[in-house]
Amino acid sequence: MDVDQAGDAPVVDRMQRLIDSWEPPGDRRAIFLACYAMMTRGMLSAIERSEFEDGAWVYTLLHRFADYYFDALNAYDRAQPTTPAVWRLTFDAARRPRLHVLQHLILGVNAHINYDLVFVIHELLHETWPTLPPALAESRYRDHCRVNEVIYRTIDSVQDQIVERYSPAMNLVDVMLLRADEWLLGRLIRGWREQVWADATRLMTCAAADASGVRQDVEARAVQRGQAILLQRGLLGLRHLF
How many structural domains is the chain composed of? Predict the structure, then answer.
């Protein structure tokens, strides 16, 4: 991977422009997107440091993944019926300022991981999956798991720079729980991403007639998780989702 290729970060610039336009009027969609931009910067740095077995493939996945977010956002802003249900739920929730900052954050994480990521992995791998050498399939999975490490080491910065800015009391929670809160959130996301790989694999290996049902199952599960997040309050309540 060419460092310049990974370092120009036009996708992060696009995210930041939206964040800058959302924060002054209090549009709470900025909460998840600020986290996502931070994670994306971390991913690009990890690619530059050759932390992945196939940095070029991860780079392609990272940018296609972002496309899914922007496509959902554009569909929602234009009130298009093609807006995925889980993203409609998430963006609608951003209009509810009484929700806890963690709910806004994790609603976005849920939609982007439990829904978008399944279909991104499927899109990039399904054509070659039947003939993909087992060693290469295992390498793709290992790189998928390495993303968890990038996420985990970014969580503390997300809490300090984003969550506590919207909810200063979360600093007290951070002190009281030491690093337990980061561990819990990291565990939640790691478990979700493991399910994502299983769902993407299931979609790539099922009969064509069954694909629609698998897609519906993925969407239904993501929506159910989103609805559960709306019923919780704060990190301690969100433990029940783990």
Answer: 1
